[in-house]
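User: Here's a chain of 320 residues. Predict its fold as C-alpha cells.
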Amino acid sequence: MHAVVLRYLDHVARLGSIRRAAEALNVASSAVNRQILKLEAEMGAALFERRGNGVRLTPAGEHLLRHARHTLAEWQRTCSDIAALSGDLHGEVRIVAIPSLLVRVVPRAIEAVATQHPHISFRVIDADPAEHVEEMRAGRPDMALLFIDRRQRSYELTARLRTALGAIMRPDHPLAAAEGVTLTQCADYPVVMLNDPWLLDAVSESEFIHSGAQFSARILSNSLTVMKAAMRSGLGIGFFTPTGFVDEIRRGELVCVPLMEPGLAGSEIGLFVHRGRATAPHIQALAAELGRQLHDLAEDIAAIGRSGVTPSAGRSPDAR
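Assistant: Prediction complete.
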C-alpha cells in the first residue's frame, strides 16, 4: 500500500550511500537511484546532496524522511495489530541493551517469545555507545535496557533492576575475602578497565573520576567476553555490576566484592519502552518477558550470596 520509495529513502538516509542501500535491499543500485530521482522531481526539491563518497540529506530530505519513517512505522504497527486479532503476532522488535544484559536476559527473553510467537523477529543492537545515544535520541529502538536516565522522554520506564558496582576478581585474589574494598585499594593491583566510561551510569563514572585512584590498566576493552576471560585468568580486577557474571560467580570462578565508595552503593538498570509503540502486541509480549527475566536475574543474584545487589526488579513504581 505504501510506495517502495519510502523504504528506499529510509535506507539511503540511514546508510549514507545509494550503493549500500541497494545491497541491503537486495535490488540494483540503478533502481534505487531512479526512484530517488523520480521522488525529487515530484517534490520539486533535491532530497540528497551527492558527494564523492556517498550522499547526505538536504533540509528538504530530512523533512520528508520524518514523514516516511512515521508512515512506515504506522503501517507496520497496523499490520501487526491486524495479525494480533487472530492471536498470530507479527512484527519486528528493535532492542538496545548494555553488554551485561546481552549475556542472558535478552537471549532468554527472545527465546521464550519466539517459541510462543514464531512470526516475531528481533533486531538487537550492541553498537558503539555513541550509536546507542543516537538510537535513543532518534527514537528508533522499540525498547532499551540501559542505566536509568530520565532524560529519555520518549520512553516509559516499565521495569527496573537495582544493583551496585562491585570489584570482580578470582577467588584466590588477595582482596577476594574482604567484606568490602575501596577503589584506592584496588588500584594497588592490575585492573581490566572499560574503554568507554559511558557503559557505567553517570554516578559511578563520577565516583571513579573523583576517587583519585590511579589504576594500572592491564587490559582496556569494551568487550565483555574479553573482560570475563581476563578476570577468570587472574589478569586483573574488573568493575561491573554482577548482572553479567551470575553464572561465573555461582560456579566459583569469580567473586564480586562490594565497593565502599558511597556513590557506588546503588545504581539502576531500566527497561524502557517507546511510548508510541508500547501498546503494539508484539512489543508488549517482549516487554513482559524482559520484565520477568529481570525479576529472575535479581533473584539469582541474591541467591549467590555477597554480591552488592538489592533483589528488587519488576514493575517500576513509576510505570503507569
